[in-house]
């Protein structure tokens, strides 16, 4: 019984994790570029924070619906690795002290999604079944 429950629900939980992580990730981009829900800081166009904000919003939206899930998750995983080593690691070797714990988690969640796919509740899966 427990094995069947895990087998049936594991792909669905993957979809739920993808959606929740993407929504939280998008919040970072909307905060940077749109000032929502916090005040944001409106980075200069084409600066690194601006590009990150664009990737957070567009990539997050793609992951929410599960479209181009694997390549998008791979790019966002790289973005978070880059952000960690560029912005957080120089402050301290400890993620709790350098504020990079979210970047690490996003990096590895997105890396997992890049390999696992978007799960059954994704546009990618609907398109795969259709063809």
From TrEMBL:
It comes from the Bacteria. It is a multi-pass membrane protein. It is found in: Cell membrane. The keyword Transmembrane applies. Keywords: Cell membrane, Membrane, Transmembrane, Transmembrane helix. The keyword Lipid metabolism does not apply. GO terms for cellular component: plasma membrane. The chain crosses the membrane at residues 9-26, 46-65, 72-90, 102-123. PANTHER family: BLL4328 PROTEIN (PTHR33452:SF4), OXIDOREDUCTASE CATD-RELATED (PTHR33452). Belongs to the DoxX family. This is Integral membrane protein (Rhomboid family).
């Amino acid at each position: 019984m427990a094995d069947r429950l895990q087998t049936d629900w594991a792909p669905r939980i993957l979809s739920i994790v993808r959606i929740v992580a993407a929504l939280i990730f998008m919040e970072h981009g909307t905060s940077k570029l749109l000032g929502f829900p916090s005040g944001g800081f409106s980075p200069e166009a084409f600066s690194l924070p601006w590009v990150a904000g664009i990737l957070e919003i567009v990539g997050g939206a793609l992951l929410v619906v599960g479209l181009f899930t694997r390549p998008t998750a791979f790019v966002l995983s790289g973005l978070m690795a880059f952000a960690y080593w560029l912005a957080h690691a120089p402050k301290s070797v400890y993620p709790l002290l350098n504020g990079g714990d979210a970047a690490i988690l996003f990096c590895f969640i997105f890396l997992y999604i890049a390999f696992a796919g978007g799960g059954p509740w994704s546009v990618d899966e609907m398109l795969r079944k259709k063809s």
